[in-house]
Amino acid sequence: MDEHRANSVHVAEAFGELVVQSRMGRMKPFDTLAQEVLYKLSGKSALYEMSPTQIALGMLSHPSLWKNLPMIQTKTPKLREFVGVSPTQKLLCFEDFFEGHRYKLEEELHKALALKPSQRGTFENDVIKVDERLSIAFMMYQGVLFKLFPVIGDEHHTWVAFEQLIMKGKGEELKEVQESSVHFANALFERNYEKASLHVKTFEAFQTRYGSHIMPSKTHVKVEIFLQSDKDF
Prior knowledge:
Strand content: 5-15%
Strand order of the largest sheet: 1-2
């Protein structure tokens, strides 16, 4: 993790300026999405002396490592004890909630969801919120939230993530960005951040060519990132 912290700064800055489509359809800098996700997961704007985008790229490239780092916020000592950690440990690991393939919160989640909101206590609310955080974390590990690629000619202005681009995209115009996506993932996995940065440029060019009509301007992107960082500071 020390290598990722020290050497991924520049690729994270470039990647953070890419535009991403949120689940609600909003177009925004990836940096903004990464900040929102990190705050949702941990209640923090930075973690492990890394930026949110550095963390997002780490979760994507080395999920097995990041699943074992404390970053899932919990509110109640009862929930922490239930999953088998110290009642004073506020941030838990993704893997703390699993025993093999068994999801430790499954039964308690069903019980909590069966109650009316007015009937739920702090423990039940914590279980529901933690389950939401785990779902978001899983989507980050899988790359589902990395909707960086406009579907060419789509009238609904749909953008897709890496897997959909690589597995389902067809056409000569997609070949370069598909190959670049694979090489980008491999470069991140190998911690070759300089090589990964080259592929970010390919993603940016693809976005500009096929998605510029719904993208915020580069100035807007930079201003939004600046305002977010200034707010965090």
